[in-house]
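Q: I'm writing up a methods section and want to include an example of the input and output format. Could you take the sequence below and give the corresponding predicted structure tokens, formatted cleanly so I can copy it straight into the document?
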Amino acid sequence: MELEDIPAEVRWEIATKTALSLSIGYGMTFRQILDEEVVSQVEEAIWAEGGKQIKEIADTLVLPTENAIEVNDAYGIIGMILLGKMEYETLEATNDRVVERITDCPNLNVHKETGTPIITMPHICQVYSTSAVEELNPKYTQSFSKRMCEGDEYCEYTLELKK
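A: Here is the clean output for your methods example:
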């Protein structure tokens, strides 16, 4: 068998799930030897830096990021490349503001599949998302109002011009 014999979609699914599992594994291992506050600071720094890399990817893919719709589209496309496919619907979309509802999250799914407790996921997800959006276009920011990892039926976020 050659690498090309494995469908790209299968390779992508394996790669994203493995990457998420590794980050979860690092967090759990760190918690066995370090203070929780230190682990949270390390995870926050790592995920914030990861969010900053989104701009480089967007530029490579020549994705526009001039308004809220374009920033959200770039954020979503790159997020699914890096983390895996998610199911979502757009509730509102204007040039200044987008509201999205996510009903299936690959990060949450890996936690469930591996039986790993969700410890800092809500916080680091917000850190990553804010970093990514603000790197794509510093005029915009993103915040969650609902989170599946905190027991809500879906995740919901608003991406909008900074006030």
